[in-house]
Amino acid sequence: MNDFNIEILERETKVILPEKLVFGKIYADHMFEVDYDEDLGGWHNPTIRKFGNIELSPAAMVLHYGQTIFEGLKAYKQVDGRIALFRPEKNVERLNRSAKRMCIPEIDPDLVLQAMLELVRIDKDWIPTKPGHALYIRPVMFASEPLLGVRTSENFKLIIMLSPVGPYYPEGFKPVPILATNKYVRAVRKGIGEAKTAGNYAASLMGQQEAKNEGYSQVLWLDGIEQKYLEEVGAMNIFVQFKNEVTTPMLTGSILPGITRMSVLQILKDWKYNVTERMISIDEVINAYKKGELIEIFGTGTAAVISSVSKLKFNENLLQFNDKEAGELGTKLYNELSAIYYGEIEDRHNWMTYID
Ligand SMILES: *Cc1c(COP(=O)(O)O)cnc(C)c1O
Question: Do residues 192 and 200 touch, judged by C-beta distance below 8 A?
């Protein structure tokens, strides 16, 4: 293990975190960095060093053609003081799947996992300890070769940075309004929707901004072909609870396979719900609502964990849920996952990876 260079910065003062943490705005002292060059043996010279700006040519291919991927996961300070990461091996697996799709050379999963653990260990004073807080871990991997021609890059860089974060909804676990759109698409089947890559976000910005202007907090994305089937909500996966079924869109290639999604599916099975993964059309959702057979809708993802939906608008249809309180199942799942993250209940599936 630990066959990387470590340049530890000596802090003169203790880490003092601001009262209010804006998501992703401040960074811990160190970052991990490793470069790719086939002539130098592939991924080489892994180093942990002081967090700071990097040198990059203005011709770096990532800036022009978007050959870049990322990941996101969290480290938690648990109730007994131990530090644990939620399913980090799944993020590393997905990093390599995204890499493959984007023609970025895969990397030794063990190196990335060890780098994350070592980085969190070094910067453990940056883990906020208040309820709902965590240290967000953000790996990013991108084309660094300077070239204006279009082809896959021959050089890449992987950086892992850390950012202390508070709960996604600082006022408490409140439901949010969402807007389904058929004006734009985020991703199409056979495209890059299932890779965690910048292009999908770029495609989503306009719809997201227009939804915000109309007073909605997220866009509910429909499939890119028929504009009919639910795909994702913002940068979260979506779950729909009907009278006799809890369901989530099946992974058709244009949907990001969320690790929270995967975990929620498992918990629902543990709880003996009738859970399915299938195509869910917006018409089915609207019809079920009209018949009183739609119970609740929620999103799942690392940042917010669970995001309950207060209302859903699609063209002239307005589906209203409880706008004061989050739905029952979403709340139950939020509490269960939080209890696992913070070590308040038994980690029955061995999802947590401990430091030391
Ligand atoms: C990261 C991401 C998710 C959620 O994945 P988690 O692993 O649960 O955090 C969902 N949709 C998109 C588009 C994402 O980028």
Answer: yes
Among residues 143, 165, 187, the one where a domain terminates is 165
Same domain, 151 and 13: yes
pLDDT digits (tens, 9 = 90+) for 7-45: 988 787 889 898 889 889 999 999 999 999 999 999 999
Ligand 1 binding pocket includes 164 (Cβ within 6 Å): no
**Residue 144 exposed, middle or buried by CB count within 10 Å (0-12, 13-18, 19+):** buried
Residue 351 falls inside a structural domain: no
Q: Does residue 81 share a domain with residue 229? A: no
Q: Is residue 135 part of a domain?
A: yes
CB 128 near ligand 1, within 6 Å:
no
Among candidate residues 63, 76, 77, 226, the one with its CA nearest the CA of residue 153: 63
> Does residue 258's CB lie within 6 angstroms of at least one atom of ligand 1?
yes
- Which of 165, 199, 230 is where one domain is finished? 165
In ligand 1, the atom with minimum distance to the C-alpha of 262 is: 8
In this predicted model, what pLDDT tens digit does every residue of 247-257 receive, in sequence order?
A: 999 999 999 99
Same domain, 270 and 248: yes
Q: Which atom of ligand 1 is nearest to the CA of 263?
A: 8
Distance from the alpha carbon of residue 256 to the mean position of ligand 1, in angstroms: 6
Cα atoms in the 13 Å half-sphere on the side-chain side of 179:
19
pTM: 0.97
Which atom of ligand 1 is least distant from the CA of 200?
13
For residue 195, give its domain range: 176-341
Total number of domains in the chain: 2
The preferred substitution site among 68, 302, 305, 333 for testing ligand 1, maximizing ligand atoms within 8 Å of CB, is 302
